[in-house]
């Protein structure tokens, strides 16, 4: 359900239905299971999202277990957030659709069921509330240079940004989408993933429109860089698209 490429051009795949994470060396069609599968001591129930940390630690959302797990370069897997139960307490979360780990190893988790973003500091099992009452947050990204958190507002068809670490409670600023479902250059339909490149352009997986949109800095008009044609039947309820690119 998710893929990423590390700095050595190795491909990682969250093979959700087979309950495993598989790594492929560049040029090879045969993968190595690095988490889940038949490894009983390190089971995954429903791995959906991946994130590579600064030290090549691979973070995995095990969505139906309500856990975030970390696979270290030596292959060891450990739980870094979650209790294994869906809950609204600060050490638990509901259905997670996005995560981000900054250079200080702070872990940000989107909790779509409880409409919030949690932050887990290194080695802490209890999180702090970063954003609350945000309708159905899915994908998240952090501009660490400017301390800005970007959040996909799935049910309101928009991307919002929030200033971090200023000690103030702020409403989000909409940077993409109109707040209404649509398919034109200014609109989005159920966005699920947001990414930033090194020049702060915004990339959005626009799920309902089956496309990837790029929004240049300070522009609310998107450009379709992939997809866009409705080749699926209208009754199809869920299309999952993975966005992969290298940040310089």
UniProtKB/TrEMBL annotation:
GO molecular function: zinc ion binding
Name of the protein: Uncharacterized protein
Classification via Pfam families: NHL
Domain of life: Eukaryota
Keyword tags: Repeat
Keyword Cytoplasm found: no
UniProt source species: Didymodactylos carnosus
NHL repeats: 139-165
InterPro entries: 6-blade_b-propeller_TolB-like, NHL_repeat, TRIM-NHL_E3_ligases
């Amino acid at each position: 359900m998710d893929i990423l490429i590390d700095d050595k051009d190795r491909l990682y795949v969250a093979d959700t239905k087979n309950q495993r994470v598989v790594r492929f060396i560049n040029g090879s069609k045969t993968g190595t299971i690095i988490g889940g599968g038949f490894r009983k001591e390190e089971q995954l129930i429903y791995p959906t999202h991946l994130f590579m940390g600064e030290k090549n630690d691979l973070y995995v959302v095990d969505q139906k277990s309500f856990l975030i797990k970390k696979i270290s370069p030596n292959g060891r897997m450990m739980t870094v957030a979650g209790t294994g139960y869906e809950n609204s307490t600060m050490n638990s979360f509901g259905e997670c659709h996005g995560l981000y780990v900054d250079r200080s190893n702070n872990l940000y988790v989107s909790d779509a069921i409880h409409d919030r973003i949690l932050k887990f500091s290194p080695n802490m099992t209890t999180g702090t509330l970063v954003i609350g009452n945000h309708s159905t947050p899915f994908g998240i990204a952090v501009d660490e240079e400017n301390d800005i958190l970007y959040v996909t507002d799935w049910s309101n068809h928009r991307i919002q940004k929030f200033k971090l670490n200023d000690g103030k409670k702020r409403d989000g600023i909409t940077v993409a989408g109109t707040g209404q479902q649509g398919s034109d250059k200014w609109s989005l339909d159920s966005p699920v993933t947001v990414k930033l490149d090194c020049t702060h352009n915004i990339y959005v997986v626009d799920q309902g429109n089956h496309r990837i949109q790029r929004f240049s800095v300070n522009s609310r008009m998107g450009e379709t860089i992939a997809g866009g044609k409705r080749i699926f039947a209208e009754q199809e309820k869920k299309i999952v698209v993975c966005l992969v690119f290298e940040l310089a």
